[in-house]
From TrEMBL:
This is CPBP family intramembrane metalloprotease. Keywords: Hydrolase, Membrane, Metalloprotease, Protease, Transmembrane, Transmembrane helix. It comes from Sinomonas terrae. The chain crosses the membrane at residues 12-29, 41-63, 84-104, 124-146, 167-187, 193-213. Coiled coil: none annotated. InterPro entries: CAAX_protease, Rce1/LyrA-like_dom. One of its GO terms (molecular function) is metallopeptidase activity. The lineage of its organism: Bacteria, Bacillati, Actinomycetota, Actinomycetes, Micrococcales.
C-alpha cells in the first residue's frame, strides 16, 4: 500500500533552498585558507556548514506535523533485511566507482581524497571527523533528506503518471540532485568532480531504487554507510 501523502508544495521549495544553502556554505568554507584556521575546527565547520541547512529545511518542512507523521512520510524504518540490501548496494556502488576510475584514470582511486575532513587530527578528532561524521552521520542525514524528503515528495507530485513511472522519475531526479551537490561540494579538480558526480549518481540510483522498492529508508541508509565506509577504509592513510 502506498503511504505517500499528497504533496505540500513548500516541502520541495524548502528542500531546494536547503540544498542551495548547503552548497553556498560549503563553497564559503572551502574559500577559508586552512593556514588561518585550526584544522580540527575547519574540519568540523566543513561538515556542519552542509548539515545545518539540510536539517533546517527538514525542520521547516515538518514543523507542524507530529513525529509519527513525519517518520511515516519519510519512510524512516529499518528491518533486518535492510542490512543485506545495504551491504549489496554499498559494495556494488563502491565497486563501480573503482571500475570507473580504473577505466578513465588508470587508478582505482585508492588515495586520500582531498576533503576538509582529512585535515582533522590527532586521534580523537580523526575518529570523529574522519570516521564518525562521513560514515555514520552523513549517510543518515543525506538519506533522510534525499531519499526521504525529496524523492518521496517528487513521487507524490508526479502521482498522475502512475505508480511505476512516478517512482522511476523521482529516483532519477533525486539521484541527479544528489550527484550534482556532491560534485559541487568536492574540493578537487574538475575531472575528480566529474568522476565523483558519476559514481555518486550510480550509487544514488541504487539507494533510491531500494528505498522505493522497500518503501522505507533502512536499506538505503545501510547502503550509504557501507559505501562511505569502504571509501574511508580504502583511502585511509597508512
Amino acid at each position: 500500500m502506498d503511504t505517500i501523502t499528497p504533496l505540500r508544495v513548500p516541502r520541495l521549495a524548502w528542500a531546494t533552498l536547503g540544498l542551495v544553502a548547503a552548497v553556498v556554505c560549503g563553497w564559503a568554507i572551502e574559500a577559508i585558507p586552512p593556514a588561518q584556521v585550526n584544522p580540527t575546527l575547519l574540519g568540523a565547520v566543513a561538515f556542519l556548514g552542509v548539515w545545518i541547512p539540510l536539517l533546517a529545511a527538514l525542520t521547516l518542512c515538518f514543523a507542524k506535523q507530529r513525529l509519527s507523521e513525519t517518520l511515516a512520510f519519510l519512510g524512516l524504518r529499518f528491518q533486518p533485511l535492510d542490512a543485506l540490501w545495504g551491504l549489496g548496494i554499498g559494495c556494488l556502488g563502491r565497486a563501480f566507482d573503482a571500475f570507473l576510475r580504473m577505466v578513465l584514470t588508470g587508478s582505482g582511486g585508492l588515495v586520500l581524497q582531498p576533503t576538509l575532513s582529512a585535515l582533522a587530527s590527532p586521534v580523537v578528532q580523526t575518529i570523529v571527523l574522519g570516521i564518525l561524521a562521513p560514515v555514520v552521520i552523513a549517510p543518515v542525514i543525506e538519506e533522510i533528506y534525499f531519499r526521504g524528503l525529496i524523492q518521496r515528495s517528487l513521487a507524490a507530485a508526479l502521482e498522475p503518471l502512475g505508480r511505476a513511472p512516478r517512482w522511476a522519475a523521482a529516483v532519477v531526479l533525486t539521484s541527479l540532485a544528489f550527484a550534482l551537490v556532491h560534485a559541487l561540494l568536492l574540493i578537487g579538480t574538475p575531472n575528480e568532480a566529474m568522476l565523483t558526480g558519476i559514481s555518486t549518481f550510480i550509487f544514488a540510483l541504487l539507494a533510491g531504487t531500494t528505498a522505493a522498492a522497500t518503501n522505507r529508508l533502512g536499506g538505503s541508509i545501510a547502503g550509504h554507510i557501507v559505501f562511505n565506509g569502504l571509501g574511508v577504509l580504502l583511502t585511509w592513510p597508512v
